[in-house]
Design goal:
The chain has about 500 residues and is of the alpha+beta class. It has three domains: about 220 residues, Uridine Diphospho-n-acetylenolpyruvylglucosamine Reductase, domain 3 (2-Layer Sandwich), CATH 3.30.465; about 100 residues, Roll (Ubiquitin-like (UB roll)); about 70 residues, [2Fe-2S]-binding domain (DNA polymerase, domain 1). It is built from 18 helices and 21 strands. It has a five-stranded antiparallel β-sheet. The protein has a five-stranded mixed β-sheet with strand order 16-15-19-17-18, sandwiched between helices. Strands 11-12-13-14 form a four-stranded antiparallel β-sheet. The protein starts with a strand and ends with a helix. The relative contact order is 0.11.
Length: about 500
């Protein structure tokens, strides 16, 4: 799909590559959208510039000036990093809630908020709350330096932004909620997880000491070519208490701002009416102070034993040497070196492939399955530096210098947090989770099982004694087409009980 892959370590290097290659190249961080576009032929760039190892772009920074707070998200901040950052949850709850509702844990571990903005789909979840919070984006160019744009200047239409060919988005600037402000985000999809929004709504209200709304911001997603602000509803709410009559009228005005289309997922009339319903629901939550009810005390991230949610920063010289250089095109004859199930490997001929294909075709490990190749089914789940990811959406080159674990390595005994060298033999013991799947009869056709095992085993490292709700959340990215979920949940809970007894 791509013939040249660069992994710059600084913003300057990345910008220089953009200057040199222009439209022929494309930046990639998480890749959850870009890999699909390349696979489907929507994009044809043959040069990828992977900025996921650029130092400093994976940080969320809170600053205050003149009494106003600002959260700055680097271009590599993932959805799960927002969810896991207490400051982001406290000061930008609408964004945190949107990030929590994006995809599934594996997608949230790779997908970045900046990538969600750049893709510029009107159904993308994080754009709506950021628009309601008056966020801006900072773009950088080697030739012109930096410029900062508000969202109404950055977004130009369906999948169209003001980003120029030689620019990259380096920061997202989010005004923190003031003590007098509360906000929330709601979405409607066709299922509870891995769902594209039929509509979504973000509402931020500033309340006076008497409970009267002094300022309102309402943004609507998936109902127009770009996210839209319900300006009439915002104006109507100013100076009013949130009585039921006021909520009904404001919600009707918000619905009037929607310009939806009918498609295979919903009719225009249904979308417009759901804008009314969900706006009213959001206003009631904010009036009653219940918008954070149900927010998980410990969100399931599938980070395993990690704490930072950042993979493969190539902090040591040996790892850095394995990463594709920025100064030249890596020849296809050069291999990609990383640790695979506890063993150092170098894969030849894996350039230009997804990690899924490289593992199956070049490493000969066919346990990792291709179910959809779109990040929807989870059958290809592996661990990238301890975190669960969909390998069908990861460039093989991204594994350079990293630690990859597949289902074949799951039964390898763990020593602390380090995998021992695999011993291939017919008598190799099963991981307790694998044994629990056998005992519970949790395997039907078996095709989805490797991915489910990888997600569940990662959860057991992260939360040794998970609740059933946590188990369900961990498996939201894994589809079982035999509908065998009850036995799967039973097996995971049994394995966790065994681990608890051993401890």
């Amino acid at each position: 799909m791509w013939h040249t892959y660069y992994a710059p370590s600084t913003v300057g290097e990345a910008l220089d590559l953009l200057r040199r290659h222009g439209d022929a190249c494309r930046l990639i961080a998480g890749g959850s959208d870009l890999i699909l576009e390349l696979e489907r032929g929507v994009r044809h760039q043959e040069i990828l510039v992977d900025i996921s190892r650029v130092a400093g772009l994976d940080q969320i920074v809170h600053t205050t000036a003149d009494g106003a707070g600002m959260l700055t998200l680097g271009a590599n901040v993932t959805h799960n990093q927002v969810v896991a950052t207490a400051g982001a949850v406290a000061l930008a709850f609408p964004l945190a809630r949107a990030c929590w509702l994006v995809g599934a844990p594996q997608i949230r571990n790779r997908g970045t908020v900046a990538g969600n903005l750049i893709t510029a789909s009107p159904a993308n979840d994080t754009i709506t709350p950021l628009w309601a919070m008056d966020a801006t984006v900072t773009l950088a160019s080697a030739a012109r330096g930096e410029r900062t744009l508000p969202f109404d200047q950055f977004f130009l239409g369906v999948r169209r932004t003001a980003l120029l060919a030689d620019e990259m988005l380096v920061h997202i600037n989010v005004p923190a909620l003031k003590p007098s402000e509360r906000g929330t985000f709601l979405k409607l999809g066709l299922r509870q997880a891995q769902a594209i929004s039929l509509i979504n709504v973000a509402v931020v209200l500033d309340f006076g000491s008497d409970g009267v709304v002094s300022r309102a911001r309402i943004a609507l997603g998936a109902v127009a070519p770009t996210i839209v602000r319900a300006s009439q509803a915002e104006s109507y709410l100013a100076g009013k208490a949130l009585t039921e009559d006021v909520i009904d009228q404001a919600s009707a005005l918000a619905a009037d701002a929607a310009r939806p289309i009918s498609d295979i997922r919903a009719s225009a009339d249904y979308r417009r009416d759901m804008v009314r319903v969900y706006t009213a629901r959001a206003l009631r939550e904010l009036r009653d102070g219940t918008e954070r009810v149900g927010w998980p005390e410990k969100p399931v991230l599938l980070w395993g034993s990690r704490r930072d949610g950042v993979a493969g920063q190539a902090a040591n010289t040996e790892a850095t040497a394995r990463v594709a250089p920025v100064s030249s095109t890596p020849p296809h004859g050069d291999g990609i070196s990383f640790t695979l199930n506890g063993r150092p490997v170098t894969l030849q001929g894996a350039h230009g492939k997804t990690l899924l294909r490289a593992l199956r075709e070049d490493a000969g490990l066919t346990g990792t399955k291709e179910g959809c190749a779109e990040g929807e089914c989870g059958a290809c789940t592996v661990w990238l530096d301890g975190m669960a990811v969909m390998s069908c959406l990861v460039p093989a080159e991204r594994a350079a210098g990293c630690d990859i674990v597949t289902v074949e390595g799951l039964s390898i005994p763990l020593v602390g947090e380090t995998l021992a060298v695999a011993q291939s033999s017919a008598t190799e013991s099963l991981h307790p989770l694998q044994q629990a799947f056998v005992d519970a009869g949790a395997v039907q056709c078996g095709y989805c099982t490797p991915g489910i095992l990888m997600s569940a085993a990662n959860l057991m490292q992260e939360v040794p004694h998970p609740t059933q709700t946590q188990v369900k959340e961990a498996l939201t990215g894994n589809l079982c087409r035999c509908t065998g979920y009850y036995k799967i949940l039973e097996a995971v809970e049994a394995a966790a009980s065994v681990e608890k007894a051993v401890q």
